[in-house]
Specification:
Blueprint (H helix, E strand, L loop, with lengths): L1 E4 L1 H7 L9 E6 L2 E11 L4 E6 L21 E7 L5 E10 L10 E3 L11 E4 L4 E9 L2 E6 H35 L6
Antiparallel strand pairs: 1-4, 2-3, 3-4, 5-6, 5-8, 6-7, 7-10, 8-9, 9-10
Pfam families: Trypsin_2 (PF13365)
InterPro entries: Peptidase_S1_PA
């Protein structure tokens, strides 16, 4: 599974009701795998895609990190449609409003459209966040802590859905084994 920008899901929302069975082609080093959107949050512009085949990719460890401060040097990375790796550097900036601190963050990286959903790293290799889009001439990104929180929310939501289904299945099997039935 991986997280990326939900821009595509948002665009599809205008064409169809719901987001069931959205398939995404995941291209990496000449290999193409079919991924399925399993979770999304259009408010935070994040989508989780599940890929059934194994891809040789580096997994970024996620956890809460120190507060991101303006003026940290960063590099934004992404791949264009042909798979070519693209990178651009810049610095972190904030919105200038104290109430947005830590939530609404920008960089000075010059992003192309193909870099939406790509990673943003500090120069020392620490993962900072996910590039979203340019807003008012400044690229907006989703900070690492918010990604971490949203992924935990998705996991908790899935557990809330899966547990009742599993419980119902166990109860049904128990009834079959005991020969009991419910009369409506």
């Amino acid at each position: 599974m991986f997280a990326t920008s939900a821009i595509l899901v948002r665009a599809l929302n205008a064409e169809r009701n719901g987001h069931d069975n959205i398939k995404i082609e995941v291209c990496h080093k000449g290999n193409v795998a079919i991924g399925t959107v399993v979770e999304y949050d259009l408010d935070h512009v994040i989508v989780v895609v599940e890929v059934t085949s194994a891809l040789d990719v580096y997994c970024v460890p996620l956890s809460h990190a120190e507060e991101l401060m303006p003026d940290i040097k960063v590099v934004a990375v992404g791949r264009d449609i042909s798979g070519k790796l693209m990178a651009t550097s810049g610095t972190l900036t904030d919105s200038g409003r104290s109430e947005d601190r830590g939530h609404l963050m920008f960089s000075t990286c010059k992003l192309s459209e193909a870099m939406q959903g790509g990673a943003l790293f500090e120069f020392d290799g620490n993962f900072v966040g996910m590039n979203l889009f340019s807003n008012m001439g400044r690229p907006l990104f989703l900070p690492r802590d918010i990604i971490f929180d949203r992924l935990n929310h998705f996991q908790t939501s899935m557990e809330k859905i899966i547990f009742p289904v599993l419980l119902k299945s166990v109860r049904h099997r128990k009834r079959l084994r005991c020969g009991t039935s419910l009369i409506s």
